[in-house]
Amino acid sequence: MATKHYLVFLLLDYIFTIGQTIQIVPTVLVHGGAGKIAEDAIPAKLGGVKMAAHIGYETLLSTGDVVSAVEEAVRSMEANGAFNAGYGSVLNWEGNIQMDAAIMNGSDLNAGCVSLITDILHPISLARCVMEKTRHTYLAGYDAMIFAAESNFTLLPEGALITNESKQALEDYKNSINGGITEFDGISIENELTETFGSPGTVGAVAIDANGNVAAATSTGGLTGKMPGRIGDSPILGGGTYADNAAGSVSATGHGESIMRFNVASRILALVKYKGLTAPEATSKVLDEMRERFNQTAGVISIDHQGNLGIYFTSQHMPWAYQSNNGLHYGVTKNIITMEEIEVN
């Protein structure tokens, strides 16, 4: 009889547990790139991520659409010269801008990716256009720019996105390479250079609504002095960007080649889905493993399907911010978080 009572208790407890609903707080979380940031550049970057998180959150409240929320958050940073995306993107070896971006909807796994984009301010919106207006997922280069023109994107004059800071960064990078060596003379250059030239990393956003729908968006100018035609991790689904309602959403930043090789976004969400880790647990585990494997740094923002936030970086800095119903939170160095109460319109 005691055994029967115990089994009834377990059954009732199980029914009570599965009957409980997780109260997910709608949230928009953004980052402004992982790396070493000059002290005098930090205030502008913090101001930029705070504004982006606020814009994304206001968009989420007004539209109820997580995809629009991450797009608008990233657009805000693409228009801000403090970041390496859109206006202010770093330059390749030839002194030109070539940008990458991706956006993904976790509810249906629909996504849009673009690479080698020039002379438009918002590559993230072009990526969304690929997602929603073509039967493809990825467009790149000359033909992606033709699609942009046909889709009524404003094509800016050549060089309009280039800043004096990005020009100086490319000059400094080239000057740092000794005697006649060029970017294409060997694979040892990267290992010899430890200094960051230009704005580090990329920009990105992840979001979740009260129903557990998630989205992710990432946009970047890449690496200062990169080979023309180089594509980084940002537009690679499962590398630098991914979203799936069954697990969560991720936007990565940092050493792109290592992020791609380690499949960072997919690894994080696999740990959430199949091992039961939370977003912060999975994010820190994967980035620590990547650093151990490749001796390279990165940063990630993530939200799991239960609304837990992952904010972790192995680099010195990563400006980040998120807004939810309990205010605006932000930071740039490890273990230092600031919170502001903010009025929602």
UniProtKB/TrEMBL annotation:
<comment type="subunit">
    <text>Heterodimer of an alpha and beta chain produced by autocleavage.</text>
</comment>
<keyword id="KW-0645">Protease</keyword>
<feature type="binding site">
    <location>
        <begin position="253"/>
        <end position="256"/>
    </location>
    <ligand>
        <name>substrate</name>
    </ligand>
</feature>
<keyword id="KW-0068">Autocatalytic cleavage</keyword>
<comment type="similarity">
    <text>Belongs to the Ntn-hydrolase family.</text>
</comment>
<keyword id="KW-0378">Hydrolase</keyword>
<dbReference type="Pfam" id="PF01112">
    <property type="entry name" value="Asparaginase_2"/>
</dbReference>
<dbReference type="GO" id="GO:0005737">
    <property type="term" value="C:cytoplasm"/>
</dbReference>
<dbReference type="GO" id="GO:0033345">
    <property type="term" value="P:L-asparagine catabolic process via L-aspartate"/>
</dbReference>
<dbReference type="GO" id="GO:0006508">
    <property type="term" value="P:proteolysis"/>
</dbReference>
<dbReference type="InterPro" id="IPR033844">
    <property type="entry name" value="ASRGL1_meta"/>
</dbReference>
<dbReference type="InterPro" id="IPR029055">
    <property type="entry name" value="Ntn_hydrolases_N"/>
</dbReference>
<feature type="active site" description="Nucleophile">
    <location>
        <position position="202"/>
    </location>
</feature>
<dbReference type="GO" id="GO:0008798">
    <property type="term" value="F:beta-aspartyl-peptidase activity"/>
</dbReference>
<feature type="site" description="Cleavage; by autolysis">
    <location>
        <begin position="201"/>
        <end position="202"/>
    </location>
</feature>
<dbReference type="InterPro" id="IPR000246">
    <property type="entry name" value="Peptidase_T2"/>
</dbReference>
<protein>
    <submittedName>
        <fullName>Probable isoaspartyl peptidase/L-asparaginase GA20639</fullName>
    </submittedName>
</protein>
<feature type="binding site">
    <location>
        <begin position="230"/>
        <end position="233"/>
    </location>
    <ligand>
        <name>substrate</name>
    </ligand>
</feature>
<dbReference type="GO" id="GO:0004067">
    <property type="term" value="F:asparaginase activity"/>
</dbReference>
<comment type="function">
    <text>Has both L-asparaginase and beta-aspartyl peptidase activity. Does not have aspartylglucosaminidase activity and is inactive toward GlcNAc-L-Asn. Likewise, has no activity toward glutamine.</text>
</comment>
